[in-house]
Amino acid sequence: MQLDRYDWHILQVLQDNGCISNQDLADRIGLSPSPCLRRVRLLQEAGFITGYRALLDAKKLGLSLMALIHISMDQHTPERFDTFEARIADIPEILECLLITGQSADYQLKVVVKDMDAYQELLLNRITRIPGVSGVHSSFVLRRVVDKTALPIATALTAVITSRA
């Protein structure tokens, strides 16, 4: 699917406000509601829009400790990685799991918990018990300096235009 200026604008507006009504979205991008809704549905079907979520305040929910955990694996086999990834996916405190390179670790996890006791329970009773985990290094987040969920649409659009030239 080739995106035109309306599609790019729809993606930008929806990133900023996923709850916007179709009428308001259509007004913002300069289309009538029916073609706007068709475009949104096409963007969803093509996989450009993968879902809609409410962003919650972790601290107000009592989840005040965020940690980044680097995990080293004992073996670099597809089976080890598959087992680890399946088990990690079932732990609700894990917000993000990234397979990484350039570090002494294989994975980086972003976790959020209530406090240090909850962190200790998560680490010692669940994460380190996953087969293959051989090393763990934790860092604790003092403050979120940049906290975005929106992708850089303008940068992506520039890259597409440049590649077509």
Give a brief outline of the structure.
The chain is of the alpha+beta class and 165 residues long. The protein contains six helices and four strands, in the order αααβαββαβα. The chain has helices at 5-16, 22-29, 33-45, 78-89, 116-127, 153-164, and strands spanning 65-73, 94-99, 107-113, 133-140.
Topology:
Layout: H1 5-16, H2 22-29, H3 33-45, E1 65-73, H4 78-89, E2 94-99, E3 107-113, H5 116-127, E4 133-140, H6 153-164
Antiparallel strand pairs: 1-3, 1-4, 2-3
Helix pairs in contact: 1-3, 2-3
Q: What features would you describe in this structure?
A:
The protein has two domains: 5-54, Arc Repressor Mutant, subunit A; 59-140, Alpha-Beta Plaits (2-Layer Sandwich). The chain has six helices and four strands, in the order H-H-H-E-H-E-E-H-E-H. It has helices at 5-16, 22-29, 33-45, 78-89, 116-127, 153-164, and strands at residues 65-73, 94-99, 107-113, 133-140. Helix 1 crosses helix 3 (33-45).
